[in-house]
Amino acid sequence: MAIAAVVIAILILVVLITGLKLNPFLAFLVSAISAAIMLGIPLDKIPATIEAGIGAMLGSLAIILCLGAMFGKLVAESGAAQQISRSLMNWCGPKYITWALMLTGFIVGIPLFYNVGFVLLVPLVFSVMYQTKLPAVYLGIPLLAALSVTHGFLPPHPSPVALIPQFGASMGTTLFYGIMVAIPTMIVAGPLFSSRLKSIQSTPLATFKPTDLPEGELPGVANSFITALLPVLLIALSSIAVYTLPTALAETPLIKLLSNSMIVLMIALAIATVTLGLKRGMSIGKVMSVYSDAIKDIAVILLIVAGAGALKQVMVVSGVSEQLAHSLENIALNPLVLAWLIATVIRIALGSATVAGLTAAGIVAPIIPLTGADPNLMVLAIGAGSLMCSHVNDSGFWMYKEYFNLSLKDTFKSWSLMETIIGVMGLMGVLVLDVFV
């Protein structure tokens, strides 16, 4: 019954959006309430469950999405994005631009939480699109594939970091194995896959369209790159500090505050306000107008992400994730494949890669000593499964769809298939490593 309820809820969501053309936020609410009723959540508890899901999702994303949108809009309006894209083209040329974007996503993605990396780097993709006239999806998939790979496979991202102590794995070994799996995975899911997506056309959100300024009015190359990458550099430094400073110092309130993504983005935005705005002749009123325009466009995405949070919370509260996992627990499979499969099923049901990884780990952890599976590879297998088959209950699916302004069909053909390729390639890489370690 639980599996049937999940399938019906997702079908309701798809029909409401694609068939009846209902606003996605309203469709999510209807789907979430329907799922709650079918899964047996007490009727008087349903509103609180919906509110908790929306609050939990927006609590972690709203500030980051808004600050990231402001930052991206200023980078675009100031001409910094135009300068960056022009420099990338000069260094790499059109032939290798997708590889350059993939490497950018990989390097930036290691220290950067996925949603932060998304909102900071997608404007760069659009800037390159306007400069080269190449399709946005063709350019964006390599960068987003690299971000997804780092999110699922590599510490210090939430799921791998949480799984390592549960399995008794080594942070350094998992990172080393993860990079070995990540490189071929992002190449296949990135530049190679995106070469087949050139026919998908999209008109991205206008808020991220860079201002086409004369070359003499562009900010300097150093100013453009340093300011645009400042959030990445600050978060990377804060991540390194947490792991390299003495424990007593790393645990101090000041270090914890400065390592928070929200605080880092606020600092970066304040610096960008000066370096790309005030020092280049913009009035404070003009800069604030840029930020207001960014918020107007991001509001729709916030509502859709909130709706996805409501549906996810219903699945979590009902216990359906644990039911699905336990139904697979006794299947006779290689433990790495079993862990991947459990994470995949929970990912399809719930949408959240982090929740899928953590739930699968709780089921699989007790069987590791009995099977002799390598705990470091188990972390990666679950990470690969947690990225599989992203669809309408995943906030990342909707962020991509709305930012790139795509139809549901084209979102499935590009984003969902990319995530599935990452999940399959990740499992293949883990199984190959298992032969040699």
UniProtKB/TrEMBL annotation:
Alphabetized Pfam families for the sequence: GntP_permease
Cross-referenced InterPro entries: Glcn_transporter
Highest taxon listed in the record's lineage: Bacteria
Residue stretches spanning the membrane: 26-43, 55-76, 96-124, 136-154, 174-193, 225-245, 257-278, 298-317, 337-365, 377-400, 420-436
Protein localization: Cell membrane
The keyword Transmembrane helix is annotated on this UniProt entry: yes
UniProt entry tagged with the keyword Transport: yes
Membrane topology of the entry: Multi-pass membrane protein
Keywords per UniProt: Cell membrane, Membrane, Transmembrane, Transmembrane helix, Transport
Family: Belongs to the GntP permease family.
Record protein name field: Gnt-I system high-affinity gluconate transporter
Source species of the chain: Cellvibrio fibrivorans
